[in-house]
Amino acid sequence: MTYYSATKDDLGFAHDPFKAIVAPRPIGWITALSAKGEVNLSPYSFFNAISSRPNIVMFSSENKKDAVAFIEETGEFTCSLVTKALAQPMNLTSAPLPRGENEYIHAGLEMAPSRFVKPPRVAGTPAALECKLLSIQQLRDLEGNEVPRWMVLGQVVGTFIDDAFVKDGRFDTAGANPIARCGYADYAEVTSLFSIQRPAGG
């Protein structure tokens, strides 16, 4: 079937297939601090790396949630890698807690200090990115109307990697066992990899 996205509800879908088609998506487990020092930890599956030189990451928030507001106030955040072992605590941090209530405490997690930014990372994560804010943009649709979606761009200024996951000079992605969002309530986990060499030249 092919359908016009604005009329998908007429086709009887229980949920929009969009998030299941654009999958798997890495999870940006974002920690941000407010100007008052309040801590927010929340997972975003609209997240990805968008540049390697310099390292730049992006996440998008549906509605202007605390993470976006806090980053707007202080200009810094961290992204902790979500693994299968951390899946349940990650899910707990998605709870709609009152502003200023610490998701680390709610999920039984510990904070580990960052080196180059003030927001902490999740203790026990195999890797984390320390970021400084580049921009926050409210999204618009084809008609130019503002929609309640905010995109945050951050430049990575520091990278934490647990030494246990460095093998032969490379980060052991499969060994870290990260998970990704696949739409609905579904997730995937990385347990093995395969390699394809790019064509020469170009």
Automatic annotation (TrEMBL):
Gene Ontology MF: a single term: FMN binding
Domain Flavin reductase like stretches: 20-173
Protein name: NADH-FMN oxidoreductase RutF, flavin reductase (DIM6/NTAB) family
